[in-house]
Amino acid sequence: MSIRVLVVDDQAMIRAGFRMLLGDEPDIEVVAEASTGLQAVHAAAKFDPDVVLMDIRMPELDGLEATRRIIAADPDARVLILTTFDLDEYVYEALHSGASGFVLKDDPPEQLIAAVRTVAAGDALLSPGVTRRVIARFASAPRVEAPAGLDDLTSREHEVLLLVAEGLSNGEIAERLVIGETTVKTHVAHVLQKLGLRDRVQAVVVAHQAGLV
Question: Do 160 and 122 have their domain in common?
Fold first, then answer.
């Protein structure tokens, strides 16, 4: 079954480029395009895509508000934000809007394709470059109370949470802790369940807001 993607960007050439890039993949299908945030909200409701590839700066409704509305209408929606290094403040806000991942517009094509597959599979990601800058932003933000359920984590689960918050992938965590990647996935799933989080992006938010990292 193909991964159904909605491409959202106010520049026609960029949308065409993504359509060509993603359309060449046998397991990915671009089912719709949108040039404004408002169009994106309507298209998401109409086409029910597996992944929404969302630009941030757009007319009528920006990508942040479009993401909020899409997720409010469908909490299981997966939104992958396209960003650039000079939009850190938007990345920070998008984390709270429920976005499932972030990729840089100048990331290699194969990285973008992998990101779409990762988010469609129900996981979440932060581009390594984005992760470093988001972590720096969280480091200067006011701390909030530690999330409920934190005390229920085992020592290993707490360790895994800290590594997720540092931006490490499951493979990198497995290597760091000298355990299997499948075991890491199980620990991450338990962490999310105990803390009531939907994905690892929210885990990054919670860990840094609570001053765990």
Answer: no
Q: Contact, 33 vs 15, CB < 8 A? A: yes
29 by Cβ neighbours in 10 Å (0-12 / 13-18 / 19+) ranks as middle
The residue range of the domain holding 180 is 145-209
Residue 74: CB atoms within 10 Å: 12
> Tens digit of pLDDT for each residue in 87-132?
556 766 777 778 888 887 788 888 889 889 988 887 766 665 666 5
Give me the numbers of helices (H) and strands (E) for the chain, helices first please. 10, 6
Beta bridge partner(s), residue 52: 6, 79
State how far the Cα of 8 lies from the Cα of 167, in Å rounded to an integer: 26
- Clarify whether residues 38 and 85 are in a common domain: yes
